[in-house]
Fold this protein.
Amino acid sequence: QVQLVESGGGLVQAGGSLRLSCAASGRSISSYNMGWFRQAPGKEREFVAVIKWNGGYTYYADSAKGRFTISRDNAKNTVYLQMNSLKPEDTAVYSCAAGYSYKYYVSSAYDYWGQGTQVTVSS
């Protein structure tokens, strides 16, 4: 089992930055693809970014590309999402997830989920 706990969410003005952290416990995340998803009220959960198990490949949703950066520190068993140039439409609950599937861009690809952290971007 892998337990994931997100932190770092909060209120930020448009154009600002925020770094989310996902701390894992239970076992090492070194063998997992690690993804970030978000869900706004009344909307479906959507893929944001993924970093593959070896850390060598990252992929982003079009909405995140160029603004967000996913990274991992296996020594700390932690995954990060650096979010820059935030927009009001980025407001959502952000969740991290761990999984093995190559279908990294859909929720069903992931086996373990954190509880989420709220990100609110004001205009």
Summary: The mean pLDDT is 95. The CA atoms of residues 28 and 77 lie 6 Å apart. The longest strand covers residues 18-25. DSSP finds no helices and eleven strands in the chain.
